[in-house]
Amino acid sequence: MDATMLPEVTAAGVIVKAVIILAVIAAIAGFGTYIERKILAFMQRRLGPTHVGPFGLLQLAADGIKLFTKEDIIPQHANKFIFAIAPVITAATAFIALAAVPVFPDFTIWEWVPFLGGVFVPSIAADINVGILFVLGMMASGLYGPLLAGMAQANKWGIIGSARTAIQFLSYEVVTGLSILAPIMIVGSLSFVDFNNYQTDGLWMVVYQPVAFILFIIAGFAETNRTPFDLLEHEAEIISGYVTEYSGMRWGLFFIGEYANMITIGIIASVVFLGGYNDFWFIPAWIMIILKIAFSFFFMLWVRASWPHVRPDQLMWLCWKVLMPLAVINILITGLVIMI
Amino acid sequence: MSLEQFKDRNVGTQNYVKLDLEHTPTEGWCKFKQVVKRTFQPELFQGLGVTLREMINALFRNKMHTTKYPFEKLPISPRYRAVHDMLRLMESGNYRCIGCGLCEKICISDCIAMETKYDENQRKEVSEYTINFGRCIFCGYCAEVCPELAIVHGGRFENASEQRAGFSLFEDMLTPMDQLNQQQEYAGFGAISPNADENIKSTPLAY
Ligand code: SF4
Ligand code: SF4
User: Fold this and answer.
1) A303 touches chain B (CB under 8 A)
2) Which of A331, A192, A336 is nearest to A275 (CA)?
């Protein structure tokens, strides 16, 4: 795929793309809660939601109605402004991160569509050449949501939750950066398109960089605060951590942000390590990318059903004493191999 | 599920297996070795395998654990003490209760209310009999004291109601006439034990 042959990207195209991302990812994030409940239930030999609609599919709508109609409570001694804005930070950064990620293949809107006919919609809303840096930065700043939310709500569980957010942030961020540095060195670019093109003909990046892949997956779990590292809101220990005092749609925004982040991590892992959106054997590219993202989503649920979670100090120990040295060694070896 | 599981009350005779766990390492180097071992052993993946196996069991091998409760019910132990039943005599279809009043007397929460009178044959007849299930604590004393095995505990455990107190009348608890042939002899609380005959000893008459 040669970049120069593509039609010009117009503002209209980007706006259409943004709306598509927002609508589709928000819908998938909502649907993800259903999938999560079903898969977790099956793994524990339960049925999961079954009563609302066929196979419980309309549970989604029921939950949505419930979230929207719940009373929006702001605790008395909370810092109201920060309390109100924190969930927006989480959700917004999650979606902004998706702006620089290739989500669907590019297409041109049919000519007969009024107003927008013939507009070219790119696969990446903002094809900046430091895409990876942007996405990782955006996702990292998303943790300001839990941090501020926990501190603003005048609740001890919230405070513990935000303290844990800080610990988590300090732990995994170094591993994410260092682990993805090795593939970046090989490709020599920070753009997702270059990563994708690099793997069009050759092997998947995971073959060259298995260690980096594993480290990135581990850090990704911490980044999306999924189960082995879901310290922020671990219900069994700290009620709900940073979301203890939240209700209704504000709570829902945290949720949507978390699921959007899961999808983003899935996309990054697929594009950087698992061959991106290229044809594989006889399977067309768009099915491949959906399969990869779906599998990484499933893997996160699978892990949640299987593994216990670690303590905050264990996470910090793991990240700084085990994973970071491994990442550095990996970078060293990669560098040596590239030099030779 | 068989009833045997419910009946086995000898806790400790079941098959418990003691896990063979290693000692938790205390020194840094040992801890590090443990982490390395756990990283490269397929331990974590065994965990993943277990959950996947259970998912396949549940979905394709028909081993789903869920009982869709209001639609399906699990069998309960015959010793379970739920809402009472009043039994009938199999031969004549008469109710067994002889109106002796022992259950009313022994009820510790005072929730049985009964009235008796003589019928035309000078036989005692129960004219009123109610149990206030808002008060009943399902202790089973009434079933145990009843000389005729007339009042027993049934298996109807769904007691939720819209009012605080639910009363059951004699007719509600009595085995319906048309279901007399389905009436089961009560095996639970206060019933005669299966080996009752062996336990009977002849009264020593001579001193
Ligand atoms: S079960 Fe106990 S409380 Fe209930 S009616 Fe019988 S004796 Fe009274
Ligand atoms: S103890 Fe038995 S026989 Fe006597 S009144 Fe109560 S139910 Fe009837």
Assistant:
1) yes
2) A192
